[in-house]
Amino acid sequence: MSSKSLSFRFTALFAGIFIAGSLLLAVTTYAFLANSFHRDDYEEIHSRLLEFWAIYETGKIELIRKDLTLERLVMEDRLYMLRIAGRRNNTLYLYVPAHWSEYNPSLLETIPVIREEEFIQLPSANDRSILEISSLKLPDGNILQIGISTKRRQEVLRRFRRTFMYVFLPLAVLALLGGFLFSSRSLKPVRHLIEFTRGIIDTGRMNVRVPSRESGDELDELVGLFNRMLAKIDSLITGMRQSLDNVAHDLRTPMTHLRAKAELALQGRGKISAYQEALASCMEESERLLHMLSNLMDISEAETGVMKLDRNTIDLSSLIADMVELYGYSAEDKGITIARDSGESIPIFADLNRIRQVVANLLDNAIKYTPVGGVLTVSAGLQGKEAVVTIRDTGPGIPPQDLPHIWDRLYRGDQSRSQPGLGLGLGLVRAIVQAHGGQVGVESKPGHGASFVVRLPL
Predict the structure, then answer these.
(1) What is residue 418's DSSP assignment?
(2) How many CB atoms lie within 10 A of CB 271?
């Protein structure tokens, strides 16, 4: 397992947190025990001082000696030193347990008596224990001193440290093992995703999906998002292939015409009329190509949010009237009637030329697919804070399988392949409308025509 792998980091993090928590708990417990023992010893010393102060006041040193003799017979576990010093710090009476030979109480005669709330510490000659001594002034001016060795509490704390080390080492191993198992189990879906992605890269198959564990957790959500991304990429690649096929198909015709006209002109053997006719045909075909490329660029700019809009306040009703009049001649030649709802003025803040393109493409599309004798209905009005334009035709309608794709660039359904066009009109319409912050939709049933609705913010 590499030190840079996520599994190693998770294992180290899990074990580190567990070990740090165990150490913190141990240190806290150790400090609590040490403080408790320390406080108990001090309370014991203070209690003994008051006890022997009362005994001394009753019977002086002799009564203290008798009490100590009796106490040694009853209790053996609580051992302490007792010293009574004169006013010059000379020892008048000294009691030290027999096995406390490592302490030298005679040194107390060289240490000035400090305040009662402070302690004198005598180090041991054999180990690291300390004899802690507290003093209390007696009524006759002598000094009563009681001392307790720290050996007992140091031994308990040493056993605690030893026991903790015996327990901590297996716990550390268990923490590492638990961290490894936890990281391995948690990252198993991620590893599966990595292997799956590597397989997609190696094989190029975008139609496969990662199996979901149906656990409902974040990793399962990641798998779902990954599958959705794969579906989106697969859809985009399929669309690109179809678009390239359509572009190649649509470019083949004008390029063939250009080549044919050029060859015909070369065979004209100096006839100016043949050259002029060939050049005119070449101009028409190049114009068609430029128009297609321009529409593709406009759609791309609008979809990426970089289309430049020359916004001004325009009257949507007047614009629609002009476009209906312009396309009225084409409709009249085909025997189609255009009915327009002459509503009130609808001022909007938009790019005049771009909105003209929207209305023109929708009208051209409706006239193209409406049969002879059909009717187009164009209406405009206000709904809340939006201007709504509706263009309804009486054509054959749009097949349900084509409805989701009619806005895709270069998409042409089976019905539209027999009609002239590049499949860019509706894609450009949607791109321009969305660039203005609006929406465009369509409702259609086969055999009952289609109704396109454009919504633009005021």
Answers:
(1) G
(2) 11
